[in-house]
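Postdoc handover notes: sequence design on the structure in folder B. Input tokens:
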């Protein structure tokens, strides 16, 4: 990799959006930057394959944006570690080609306010089983997926009382 990070004790925001980053170009040494609060790597069409699992190790992270890339695998379970101590407020994985469902471990995301998984290939009933347990959620965007199951609105109304935006358009509900 061309880029290496040392201890980077003062780095809080890393914005590499709309560049030509590739998954192979993400240096593992980025994991040394433990105090990052924002990572934005949106719009890097060369980012593909799986979302790097080491991103789950940033315990101070409040915002993770990986939208408009070419990630094609399932959402890694380890990414839910960002919710473990209740810091993550916004997660944007929209406009990729992610498959599968949102892992059950994400139900621990009690501080998450914005979740955007729109324009992927996600399926199943995870809106009811996982997302409805995210009590701080204010914005939920899941359009253009293959989400199915029963009407999720009653579960969302009961479990997510702060919701202001719900976008479930163009699914299989």
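Designed sequence:
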């Amino acid at each position: 990799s061309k880029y290496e990070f040392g201890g980077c004790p003062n780095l809080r925001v890393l914005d590499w959006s709309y560049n030509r980053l590739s998954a192979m170009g993400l240096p593992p040494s980025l994991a040394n930057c433990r105090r990052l609060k924002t990572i934005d790597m949106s719009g890097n069409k060369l980012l593909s394959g799986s979302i790097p699992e080491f991103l789950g190790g940033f315990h101070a992270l409040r915002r993770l944006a990986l939208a408009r890339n070419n990630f094609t695998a399932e959402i890694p379970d380890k990414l839910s570690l960002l919710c473990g101590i209740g810091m993550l407020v916004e997660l944007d994985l929209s406009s990729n080609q992610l498959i599968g469902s949102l892992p059950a471990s994400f139900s621990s995301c009690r501080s998450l306010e914005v979740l955007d998984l729109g324009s992927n290939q996600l399926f199943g009933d995870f809106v009811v089983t996982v997302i409805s347990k995210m009590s701080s959620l204010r914005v939920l965007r899941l359009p253009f997926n293959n989400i199915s199951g029963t009407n999720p609105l009653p579960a969302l109304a009961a479990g997510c009382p702060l919701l202001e935006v719900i976008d479930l358009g163009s699914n299989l509900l």
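Context for whoever picks this up: Helices lie at 126-129, 153-159. Don't rerun without checking with the PI first.
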